[in-house]
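User:
Hi there, any thoughts?
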Amino acid sequence: MTSHGTARMIRIHIGEDDRWEGRPLHDAIVDEARRQQMAGAIVYRGIESYGASSRIHRKHLLTSDDLPIVICLIDERAKIEGFLPALERMVAEGLIAVSDVETFHYTPSDGDAHGEPQS
């Protein structure tokens, strides 16, 4: 079974070394999203990036150089709009991108948990 609808998505682009109150910023953002009962969050670590400073961030032989992190949240418009003030307080340097998205949700129907029809 497939259902679809519209929603809003936030992508927060930060660095691995960014902090909020002494802890990794991406952890703090995910915890705040959960506290605000957002639908879900995912954190991606990139392998290379550059931003406003044009400085390249990439892993070096033995150390990392502030690798890129992207946090993605998708929820209804009101929840996303309500989450923005927290992000504005937490993200001192980075990019917050908000966009409208169309969502598709696939669920098993008349079968097992993997969508396979039972015989």
In short: Strands lie at 2-15, 19-20, 23-24, 41-45, 48-49, 57-58, 68-75, 95-106.
